[in-house]
């Protein structure tokens, strides 16, 4: 898994990139949890998501937001991090220009950034949002949400209570033209302690379902 450094709006961005075996394979972007609470691209959930997409033939990038690890800059409360994510997608597309489509997967803060990114980038066809911080951040920009996706969270999450995520899901499900799948993992806290295996299995099954429905373009 090659270590990569590319230019972002606040300076260098550090990442890990897995090229795809075929020229027109899809792209996946993995976005890590909150930088001010220890979130990095090596978070266990971000790491496992990376390999989940790799195993399905995607070109996959995970990276550190500004001010994390060897990425330059400092925390910018979401605005700068969204710019980082857009630059990261630009970088992957520059070296993998024939990608058929793109997915974004994020955990916690990364889920919030990922859902903002899909509003700006029509090539994002699917998303996986894990424990989106619906009680801490404003998701009203999803009006309407342009892509179908999976929202997955735990029923004993004390950081992002289930009722707040449920309100977000209910709002999105009322929108026409997209399908929001929801999975609640019983006994899972915000960090999915002892539940990461189950979390990744659910994400993988959802991704397989969506890929099976994708038209084969060769």
Strand order of the largest sheet: 1-2-4-3-5-6-7-8
| Helix-residue proportion | 25-40%
Largest β sheet strand count, sense and barrel closure: 8 strands, mixed
| Tally of helical segments | 5
Evaluate the radius of gyration. 16 Å
Number of strands: 8
Query: How far do the termini sit from each other?
Result: 26 Å
SSE order, one letter for each helix or strand: EEEHEHEHEEHEH
Oligomer category:
single chain
Explain what you see:
With 218 residues, the protein is α/β, with parallel strands linked by helices. 32% of the residues lie in helices and 23% in strands. It has 5 helices and 8 strands. An 8-stranded mixed sheet has the order 1-2-4-3-5-6-7-8, sandwiched between helices. Helix 2 crosses helix 3. It is globular and about 40 Å long. The model has no long low-confidence stretch (mean pLDDT 96).
Summarize this, please?
The protein has about 220 residues and is an alpha/beta fold.
Record keyword descriptors for this entry.
alpha/beta, 23% strand, 8-stranded mixed beta sheet, 218 residues, 5 helices
């Amino acid at each position: 898994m090659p270590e990569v450094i590319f230019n972002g709006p606040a300076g260098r961005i550090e990442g890990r990139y897995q090229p795809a075996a075929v020229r027109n394979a899809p792209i996946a972007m993995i976005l890590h949890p909150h930088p001010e609470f220890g979130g990095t691209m090596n978070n266990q959930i971000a790491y496992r998501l990376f390999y989940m997409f790799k195993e399905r033939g995607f070109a996959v990038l995970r990276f550190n937001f500004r001010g994390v690890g060897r990425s330059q800059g400092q925390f910018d409360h979401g605005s700068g991090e969204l710019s980082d994510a857009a630059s990261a997608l630009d970088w992957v597309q520059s070296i993998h220009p024939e990608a058929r489509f793109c997915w974004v997967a994020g955990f916690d803060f990364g889920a919030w950034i990922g859902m903002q990114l899909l509003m700006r980038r029509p090539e994002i066809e699917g998303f996986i949002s894990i424990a989106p911080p619906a009680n801490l951040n404003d998701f009203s920009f999803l009006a309407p949400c342009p892509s179908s996706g999976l929202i997955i969270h735990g029923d004993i999450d004390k950081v992002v209570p289930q009722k707040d995520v449920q309100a977000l899901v209910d709002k999105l499900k009322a929108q026409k033209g997209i399908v929001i799948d929801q999975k609640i993992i019983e006994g899972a806290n915000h960090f999915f302690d002892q539940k990461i295996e189950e979390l990744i299995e659910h994400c993988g099954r959802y991704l397989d379902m969506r890929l099976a429905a994708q038209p084969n373009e060769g």
